[in-house]
């Protein structure tokens, strides 16, 4: 076997009070996407009764979700503007009218009164330098976060002919939420910004409160505001006195929270490669109820009754949330790599399977379709909070590279079959292998880093992209 250069790319949290109630109670139900040709990237999803709307690259679409196991695509409007970089980012639904924003391209007005043939009606933009990031509908007014111009108030009393009303000042507004006559702005520079008399000709900034990270989205449920703060999760503010919000608690999250919704004492978080549900019935002690690794990138999230809808880049994925305890299988390895192959020489690696749920996890079989790979033991039961080590054996009869799986079958409702990849030979890079050397140049600090110079050290890579 190869000697090891261990490289850790890690972000580690230890918050026992926050994660103590974790249950993997999100069970995948179905997925859907527009039935159109061309580029499709889904960034937002809205649920109105038995209808779902989604938007992104590929336009804006409507679906019949009355049978969630067999969702029907009804209609689509596609502006065909993907080549110049414009796309639909967020949207709000007002009856049969949908307002979709495409950042530098303004706000498109789409009429969905004929669901199978939605019709473009108008495009609103204050001017070509106004960049629309998010949009809120309250009555006959749109409130759109437009970055350094603050929040633009737009009158849509005539739904297809939006009219500019005023700008509300902010340093860099990313989103807004409204409660009474107060507007709460998620400002990536100033944090939470509170505006009084928002519906008058002279709105006033009455409070600015720094957030744990850059404020990127906001939702209000009852007397609490929930602000998405990127890699720092979300912040909770008590807004009982609206002019003076009080910071209550930060929930750190497991990914990069850029979108959330708050309903019925729960916060639903979209965090790129993960989605979470957090219990905020006691705002000072937010508790993780469920999480799910997304298949692509979770760009937006919504909830309706016990269903959770994730705008997951390539599809809208639908999960059902179960409040009752369930078992949850969690292996400590994402894959196993046997490295170089020595024909006729058996090798062994281990994987530890934990039950991080609250019911007994029953493993009924662990097997592989490849004759050279086996696992011991292959059936057992793990109590809640316990773990069991499994030995995976590789007995190669040749030096031919393999790429296969061990298939773990259990009573985990979320993943009754779990495929753990097994590599040997050419596709063997992973824990225990020699990492290829490379050089990174830090343009900001004019420094060069070579991986081999950092041998034996803990390395944390933080990578972020935006558009």
What is the element layout, followed by pairings?
Layout: H1 16-19, E1 26-32, E2 41-48, E3 51-57, E4 59-64, E5 72-77, E6 90-94, E7 97-101, E8 107-111, E9 119-124, E10 134-138, E11 141-145, E12 151-155, E13 163-168, E14 173-179, E15 182-187, E16 191-196, E17 204-209, E18 217-221, E19 224-228, E20 234-238, E21 246-251, E22 259-263, E23 266-270, E24 272-279, E25 287-298, E26 300-304, E27 307-312, E28 315-321, E29 329-331, E30 336-337, E31 347-355, E32 361-367, E33 373-376, E34 380-382, E35 387-394, E36 402-410, E37 417-424, E38 439-442, E39 447-450
Parallel strand pairs: 30-37
Antiparallel strand pairs: 1-28, 2-3, 3-4, 4-5, 6-7, 7-8, 8-9, 10-11, 11-12, 12-13, 14-15, 15-16, 16-17, 18-19, 19-20, 20-21, 22-23, 23-24, 24-25, 26-27, 27-28, 29-31, 31-35, 32-34, 32-36, 33-35, 36-37, 38-39
């Amino acid at each position: 076997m190869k000697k090891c250069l261990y490289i850790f790319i890690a972000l580690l949290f230890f918050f026992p009070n926050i994660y103590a109630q974790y249950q993997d109670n999100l069970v995948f139900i179905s997925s859907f996407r527009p039935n159109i040709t061309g580029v499709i990237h889904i960034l937002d999803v809205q649920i109105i009764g038995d209808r779902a709307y989604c938007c992104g690259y590929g336009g804006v679409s409507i679906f019949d979700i009355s049978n969630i196991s067999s969702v029907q695509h009804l209609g689509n409007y596609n502006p065909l503007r993907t080549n110049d970089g414009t796309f639909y980012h967020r949207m709000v639904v007002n009856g049969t009218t949908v307002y979709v924003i495409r950042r530098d391209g303004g706000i498109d007005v789409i009429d969905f009164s004929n669901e199978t043939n939605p019709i473009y009606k108008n495009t609103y933009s204050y001017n070509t330098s106004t960049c629309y990031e998010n949009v809120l509908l309250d009555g006959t007014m749109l409130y759109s976060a437009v970055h350094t111009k603050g929040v633009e108030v737009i009158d849509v009393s005539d739904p297809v002919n939006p009219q500019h009303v005023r700008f509300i000042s902010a340093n860099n507004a990313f989103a807004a939420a409204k409660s009474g006559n107060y507007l709460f702005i998620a400002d990536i520079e100033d944090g939470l910004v509170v505006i009084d008399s928002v519906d008058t000709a002279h709105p006033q900034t009455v409070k600015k409160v720094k957030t744990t990270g850059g404020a990127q989205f906001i939702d209000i449920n009852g007397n609490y505001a929930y602000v998405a703060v990127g890699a720092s999760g979300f912040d909770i503010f008590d807004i009982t006195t609206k002019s003076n919000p009080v910071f209550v608690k930060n929930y750190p999250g497991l990914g990069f929270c850029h979108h959330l919704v708050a309903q019925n004492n729960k916060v639903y978080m979209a965090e790129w490669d993960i989605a979470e549900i957090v219990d905020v019935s006691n705002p000072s002690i937010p508790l993780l109820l469920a999480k799910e690794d997304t298949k692509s990138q979770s760009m937006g999230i919504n909830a309706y009754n016990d269903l959770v809808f994730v705008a997951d880049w390539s599809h809208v994925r639908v999960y059902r949330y179960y409040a009752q305890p369930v078992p949850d299988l969690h292996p400590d390895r994402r894959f196993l790599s046997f490295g170089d192959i020595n024909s006729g020489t058996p090798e062994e690696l281990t994987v530890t399977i934990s039950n991080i749920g609250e019911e007994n996890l029953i493993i009924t079989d662990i097997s592989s379709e490849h004759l050279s790979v086996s696992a011991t033991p292959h059936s057992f039961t793990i109590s809640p909070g316990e773990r069991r080590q499994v030995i995976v054996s590789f007995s190669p009869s040749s030096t031919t590279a393999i790429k296969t799986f061990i298939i773990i079958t259990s009573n985990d409702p979320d993943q009754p079959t779990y495929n753990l990849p097994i590599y040997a030979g050419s596709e063997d890079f992973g824990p225990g292998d020699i990492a290829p050397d490379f050089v990174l140049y830090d343009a900001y600090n004019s420094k060069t880093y070579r991986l081999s110079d950092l041998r034996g050290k803990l390395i944390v890579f933080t990578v972020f992209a935006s558009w």
